[in-house]
Design goal:
The complex is a heterodimer of chains A (about 240) and B (about 240). Chain A has about 240 residues and is an alpha+beta fold. Chain A has 8 helices and 12 strands. In chain A, helix 2 crosses helix 3, helix 4 packs antiparallel against helix 5 and helix 5 runs antiparallel to helix 6. With about 240 residues, chain B is of the alpha+beta class. The chains are: A alpha+beta (about 240), B alpha+beta (about 240).
Chain lengths: ~240, ~240
Amino acid sequence: MTYSIIARCPRTGQFGIASASYSIAIGMSCDGAVRANTGVALTLGSPHPRNNYLAISLLAQGRTAGQTLTELVANDPDNEYRQIAIIDRESIAVAHTGASVRKWAGHKIGKGYVAFGDMLAGQQVVDAVAAGFDSVPDAGLDEQLLAALEAGRKAGGIVGSKGRLPERSAAMVVWGNRTYNEVDLRVDMHDHAVEDLRRIYVDYKPSIAYYEERARSPRNAIPAMEFADMLKKQQAKEAT
Amino acid sequence: MTYSIIARCPRSGRFGVGSTTFSMACGRRNESVRPNVGVSKSQAFYLRYVDPLALNMLAQGYTPASIMRTLAAEDPDFDYRQFGIIDRENNVVAHTGPGCGKWAGHTVGPYYAAYGNGLAGPQTVAGIVSGFLKQPDAPLEDRLLMALEGGRDAGGQMSKGIPRPERSAWIRVVDRVDFPEIDVRVDLHDKTVAELRRILEEFKRCRDYYNARNANPAAAIPEEEFVAGLNAKAA
């Protein structure tokens, strides 16, 4: 009941995740799934909550994505219910879709990314997630991730026993080379979670540089309210 | 312009943070809480690297008071920072630099700290504390939420004499394991604290189902059936 993409940007070395789900607060299941200069490893399907952390520590020890996947599967008697995707810092991408993950379920491994999902309208959703990611190759990892989710939704998204299910939560995460995330946005419970994630992202993106600069030189910072007002005016001008 | 509460549950030892602010997506600061180590939540003109650094130092064995001295010594703009730190022995410190603007301040309790900047006045922090202390036997996440509601109801944020809305809010609670027990967020919303209550309550209704499904997937009913049952019960 989720479609997702994990990726490594070949230009910047950033790692990222985007996910949309019928379950609420899918961003919580992405916790611990990325570490700078190490990798990205996300377990969904019926998530095994400790997998993200175990995988990242294996990658940090120097195991490859493939070895890490083998370890996760061996460590989990219910691995046939899990869907796992891993990319290491060499851009090696691997995935596992257990035989008991609810159908349609599957994954598609691309260059530096894995698109995957369960309870989908069909293979076309995962194909669309991948194509969406590839459609804006120069836009930056955050834009690519968001485009991937939007394409997955348009291609039919999530389907339950009685037809299409809404995306009720969505999340996107990007890490650079720091000890904390660069982008981490979530919609935890909403009737149109993917659209709402785009709304938040559009407002959020221009403020990243502002908050970084404000922390570096607080003596010269303009107040957050004034910055927000400026931004609003600028967006109104661009809209006309 | 933010107000927060950080706490260690005196019964369970769980660590938690509740925060709300005018800025978007305050819950992206998920590096601020670490199981079995502590909480370090900085704000005002915060540097993102401070919280992971403080938690690394806690994990090495430094006390919160000692970490605060290090941060003060290494930061020429320490006057512009506000933060609170709690370790696993309930040592609590908080700092509000004079450059954090009016009104800014903090209250330190035996296992919690409430603090904020760009507030209506000391009554906002007093409201956070009284909300947090209202039901001492409630689970930590509920107490954190009541604390945020208490701050909001006491006047919340203000700048240049004008009340300013909370646009994002966040609660995270960690127990002994790596993954959070609760992490719910509102990233951009007009009534963000009320929306956070709606999401937390729904999450708690689903939590047992999610945990059971992930631990024993073969026995789980489909999620859409579970949700239909919830909705039927609510109606």
